[in-house]
């Protein structure tokens, strides 16, 4: 983790590595799938409509970052590159920080449940990650967009925290308004759920509900 943090700070936050002078302007960012950028599109039947919508006018594209540590790591790099591609294509990028979902814990790729974090730790991690994301986008704008003479202003990244709206909902209201839109069959069929159910430790209700937030 120390090595990952140092690499990110030195290579992304302070000064970007030399790159080819390439300007990606295609509004339909799903064309990145041809380069293996996206693993999947969900729901699959909506991909044609998504291509048309993305190519017709600027849209809003978001990516989530849970505050599991006080720094970004190499696993976040591909996600950030995706947001930068979206920004360069004219879309509005949003970095969604998981102030609420980070307290639940993403079960994806894990064999055991994440340890619960203190709220003070979550808030500190949120602040650090938010500052790093803003710095990366600012460096990209100044050193890789304006300095290379690309025309047009980039839409600045918006950094938001999902705890800002979830904290206003009580549990009964949330289940009543949101829960009815999710089917148990599809929730249970997710790979992250199935892999954990096959483990002796299983999966807690807390982790299972992560997918509806």
Supply database-style keywords.
Tyr-tRNA-ligase, Rossmann fold, 3-stranded parallel beta sheet, 8% strand, nucleotide-binding, ligase, 3 strands, disordered N terminus, 10 helices, mainly alpha, Tyrosine--tRNA ligase, aminoacyl-trna synthetase
What does this protein look like?
With 213 residues, the chain is mainly α. Helices cover 44% and strands 8% of the residues. The chain has a domain at 2-14 and 39-162: Rossmann fold. The protein has a 3-stranded parallel sheet with strand order 1-2-3. The longest helix has 28 residues, at 119-146.
What is the H/E string? HHEHEHHEHHHHH
- Give the N-terminus to C-terminus distance in angstroms: 27 Å
| Sequence stretches where pLDDT stays below 50 over 5 or more residues | 1-23
**What do we call the CATH homologous superfamily of the domain at 2-14 and 39-162?**
HUPs
CATH architecture of the domain at 2-14 and 39-162: 3-Layer(aba) Sandwich
- Count the strands? 3
Give the count of helical stretches.
10
- Global mean pLDDT: 84
CATH topology of the domain at 2-14 and 39-162: Rossmann fold
Question: What strand order characterises the main sheet?
Answer: 1-2-3
Shape: globular
Class of the domain at 2-14 and 39-162, according to the CATH hierarchy?
Answer: Alpha Beta
Helix content: 40-55%
Rg: 19 Å
> What characterizes the major β-sheet?
3 strands, parallel
Task: Tell me the structural class.
Answer: mainly alpha
Q: In what range is the share of β-strand residues?
A: 5-15%
